[in-house]
Amino acid sequence: MSGHDVNPFVDPVDVNPFQDASITQATRGLDKIDEYNPFSSPAGKHSDTTIPVSESSSQPAILQTSVEQSPRATAAAAQTDLIRKQEELEKKAADLEKREEEFQNRTTIGSTSTGTKENNWPPLPRFSPVKPCFYQDFEEEIPEEYRRLCRRMYYLWMFHSVTLFLNVLGCLAYFTADDNSGVDFGLSILWFLLFTPVSFICWYRPIYKAFRADSSFSFFFFFFVFFFQVSVYIIQSVGIPRWGNSGWISSISMIRVNLAVAVVMMVVAGFFTVNAIVAVILLKMVHAKYRRTGASFNKAQQEFSHGVLSNRSVQTVAAGAATSVAQGTLGRS
What we know:
single chain, about 325 residues, about 65% helix, elongated
């Protein structure tokens, strides 16, 4: 039976083919290769410290240049800076020279042979026998902070003149519808011929001079006259009959008589109303500017006395009066 216990598939001797001497020696060589670390320190000394991945830089190495520049480069940079500054100065000088030439040309054109400025308002043609009476230039004479308000006052005066002309047309229509309104038509013509130049001289020119020379006397004169002008605007917009104004009362009274004439007169009354409202607004604006200028009543008195005493006409009249009084006194004695 013992012969049947033997496994025919098992080798009679348990032999390991890898235990051969040549194979074992080759295997030991591979083990040494696996243990070799090319990044380790020499003489088989291994370092326990490792370099973190985050500390390593993935950017290429850059060679740091020296901060200090050579004397030749410094001199070249300084020379370039000087050339640039010289070009800027030359450009500014050319600009200033150009402005000066323009100013001189403008002064030559706007001046006479005696050196005084030639009047340019009203703008009349050269062949007209009537010559301009005033000189007016907002850009040259009025400071920038007052220029806009001064222009508005000038536009108000122009609107005032147009309203007086329309008032003549409205009173003419009123006269065609009612024969008893001839007085209104005559007075409207008088108001147009009188108040147009008077308003320019009495309240527009004073405020122009006040803004031009910061004159306290001109400011006070303007306030006095312009307050009266606002009152006249209110009266004209009301339209009292027989006063020469196409106001609201006269226009409303014409609705039953002639509707077309009433509409024309209402338009004129609306113009008078706009004049009154705009005048009040501009009066407040001028007063606000006046308070900022530091003008006062004492300065106005000083300007008035200085202007009167330095006026040649007043000096001539005063000297003549004094001479006549002296001669009369000597004659009596």
